[in-house]
Amino acid sequence: MLRILGTRKSLCDRLTRREMLEAGGLSAAGLSLADFLHLREAGANVSSTLPAGSFGKAKNCILLYLWGSPSQLETFDVKPDAPRDVRGEFGDGIATSIPGYRVGELLPRISQEMHKVTIVRSLTHPYPLHGIELALTGIPKLGQRFSNPHDTRSWPFIGSVVEYLQEQQFNGAHSEIPNNIALPWPFSSRRTGEVLRSGPYGGFLGSAYDPVWTEFDGTASDSSPTVHASFGGINKSYRDPYGGITPDSSFLMAANGKLRPEMTLNRLDRRRSLLTQLDQSRRQADQQIDRSSFDRFQQMAFSMLTSPKLNEAIDIDREPSETRERYGMSLFGQGCLAARRLIEAGSTFVTVFWDEYESVNSAWDTHEDHFNRMTNQLCPNFDTALPALLQDLEERQLLDETMVVCISEHGRTPKIDNSPGGGRNHWSRAYSALFAGGGFAEGRVIGRTDAVAGDVESSPFHPNDILATIYHLLGIDPHTTLHDRLGRPLPLVGAGSVRQELLA
């Protein structure tokens, strides 16, 4: 059935008056003067010479989005010599397969796969506000983050752009396997009192280019740590499926953004119901469906219902139990497995969200209980899923043509606060991201931060640079323009540049 997004409620964001003024002062294009100057400067420092053969190296992309933002200090930018109130309970890190480079001690499996990936430790921007739209579209329309995510003033999600341009290339045709799929459920739809967040939507391309969302059909396992939420007036305990799920859990094609509100998949299960909803004048149960008369929503809905290939692709129960366990029996791990299956079936762009669940201060948004959550839930499941995905793609000879991009919206504060269990808050001046496969370099560490991982000291990257490089590797010129609803030609990534140091 369709999941209806709720009304606006409180955010975890501890917004200052200055931050709100910054958000409210954004231009119509979504860029402040400071942001524009930063982008221009970053672009000016990039060589125009790109490696031969890098353009269009990748056939597809798996985007792993860690909502809430992991701490750079416990993952890819450890600072063993930093003061105790910065290092916290960890700090020395562990050696990796890249000589001389160390990662957080909670990532032992990932440490052995580092020779396959490139790490950027120098991402930076001025908006520590869960700016998902900035990370996923390149335009930080922070003032609209509190409103309708389908606002046509918003810029389109990168997966939506890829789908749109592919459709233009093939004269409006769409494949049996959608080219823009997102797991595990419609974004932010499982948080109590959730906020409608902009970002992973079609924007000015229209909701027809929203990702095709799956739904999660399952429950958290008894082994999943119990979460005690007491943040923002919420006081409850629950088990988070990102901590572990039961073996019978699965993904379904349901409640997705391709369907009109009046069209529910449970009603579309039967042909007679489909006919009734699409055209009330159709009364004959045996009437043939003229698919050419359907609009894009209807065609996508019908395709999903009638595509054995798509429904087989998301059926993770078809995998051997050993493979499922290899990825880890967590929601994120099984989402990564489903993403591999979807790519193998022919999808171009698959996004796996580590999303909010139940309460504010969930996922990687560790304002409270930081070290316990990093130790017992977040890092172990991430450390299981990501290496399994890389190894699986490599064994199936898919890694060379499949980008794996692991990003978030910002990082966490260097200094630990006195919240219960210790907390790290929002920090966008320096944070990290990971890239592998599909034309990305291997075994490379880019950028350097100061002694507390608080500010970038070399090779600054803007999120737009990341988007530009993804487009480039998919064979899309980042300087391509799209026309918004007013007919204005708008560049895909503003002043973002393809970053040569990311390329093989």
Q: What does this entry look like structurally?
A:
Residues 1-10, 14-48 and 255-294 have low confidence and may be disordered. β7 and β8 form a beta hairpin. The strands form 6 sheets. Strands 9-6-5-10-1-11-14-4-15 form a 9-stranded mixed β-sheet, sandwiched between helices. It has a single domain, classed as Alkaline Phosphatase, subunit A (3-Layer(aba) Sandwich), CATH 3.40.720.10. The longest helix is centred in the C-terminal third of the chain and has 26 residues, at 370-395. The chain has helices at residues 17-24, 33-44, 84-87, 108-111, 132-137, 158-169, 265-268, 271-278, 296-306, 308-313, 321-327, 331-345, 370-395, 463-473; strands spanning 60-66, 94-95, 102-103, 117-123, 180-183, 212-217, 226-229, 236-239, 250-253, 349-354, 402-407, 411-412, 426-427, 431-436, 444-446, 448-449, 456-458, 481-483, 489-491. By secondary structure, it is an alpha/beta fold. α12 packs parallel to α13 (370-395).
Radius of gyration: 22 Å
Biggest sheet architecture: 9 strands, mixed
Q: Specify the CATH architecture.
A: 3-Layer(aba) Sandwich
Strand order of the largest sheet: 9-6-5-10-1-11-14-4-15
| Uncertain ranges | 1-10, 14-48, 255-294
Give the helix/strand class: alpha/beta
Report the helical percentage.
25-40%
**How far is it from the N-terminal to the C-terminal residue, by CA?**
44 Å
CATH topology call: Alkaline Phosphatase, subunit A
Q: Which strand-content bin applies to the residues?
A: 15-25%
CATH superfamily: Alkaline Phosphatase, subunit A
Overall average residue pLDDT: 82
Number of helices: 14
Described by the principal axes of the CA atoms, the overall outline is: globular
Number of individual domains: 1
What is the CATH class?
Alpha Beta
Task: Let me know the number of strands.
Answer: 19
